[in-house]
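Reply to dn_fold:

You asked what the input looked like. This is it:
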Amino acid sequence: MPLKKPESDFLHELANIAEQRILSSYLKSHCIDISTKPKEGFRFDPVTNIDRETEIIIRRMISERFPEHAIMGEEFGDTGSSTYKWVIDPIDGTRPFLCGLPVWGCLVGLLENGEAVMGMMSQPYTGDRFWSDGKCSWFSGRFGTSIMKTRQDAELHQAILHTTSPESVKLYHNNKFDLLQNQVLMTRYGGECYAMAMLAAGHIDICVEYSLQPYDIVAFIPIIENAGGVITTIDGRRAENGGAIVVSANEQLHEQVLNILNS
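and this is what came back:
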């Protein structure tokens, strides 16, 4: 008997419980224990007790509701084997989280037979949520709920380009990022996962990230694609496994960006 696909309402239930845990400690440094994980090329890659505890809470709720589903999380790895796999990053952007800058988010995505079909980024402090039910992409915030669309008319010379950190750019072999940024309108840094959400919402046109894990990107794949954007690896493959990832507001722009980065 085939497994039943969850409804997108469950994404909001997960966001609700994550929000409760995270906000009880956010901006309270005495509540946060910080350690670092090994990461090639980086001297400091932070993880906190809040990351771990939030992932445990999310995992528990998924297992109670969908015990037959598999789970992958940043902090506790893979468990189970199933047609459906939940992919979790409890706090994507731990560095800005520690700095009190609200460009971090809680990411939850769902794979069906290895392909991302549903996902959400929630920002507990601002109350913003960006999600896809597999058909449309949605934003909800202080001013209500609306459908998101990427900028379909964005051209390269008018485009806003984003990458999180110059560190990752420098570490990527055979890098052509400088060629790309010389052809766009402007380049911005430091937006973390919020930049991906802003691309889906039509405010940023290109995101390039050179070192992503599946839990960094799976939630965004349906959000981007169902908003009209394109997301692939730098060599044009599906993005579910992470790596060097390119996101563009439309197909023509994406082709141009890939040509430049692979020139």
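The first strand starts at residue 34 and ends at 36.
Hope that clears it up.
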